[in-house]
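Work Package 3 (structural annotation) set out to generate three-dimensional models for the target panel prioritized at the project kickoff. During this period the team completed the workflow that converts sequence records into discrete structure tokens, so that structures can be stored uniformly alongside our sequence database. As a representative example, we reproduce one entry of 105 residues exactly as it appears in the project archive.
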Amino acid sequence: MSRTTSTDQGTQVDLAAWAQELDEERDRLKRANERRVARRGYLVFATDPSRAPDERGYREVFATEAKTPGEATAKVRPLVEGRRLRTFLATGTYKEELGDARWVA
């Protein structure tokens, strides 16, 4: 985005053009953030309280897209009755788990 304003000696800043550019930039960022929020990736960890933590099948990992952590949990809950669920953003601490996660639409 090229600016029409200049701060060189002998020229004056066009404040109206500068304000217009700021408004356009804010609108562009707002639209980008709305798209980003609408489709965030989440990891949902489902643990079985009846099994020991080092026992096979204790933990299952699911990946999904949702607007909120609650929505991500709601997508996984019917698949894992009786398990405890914890939901995290896929870009956070557990992003390495994403490759092994089972996808839930």
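The radius of gyration is 23 Å.
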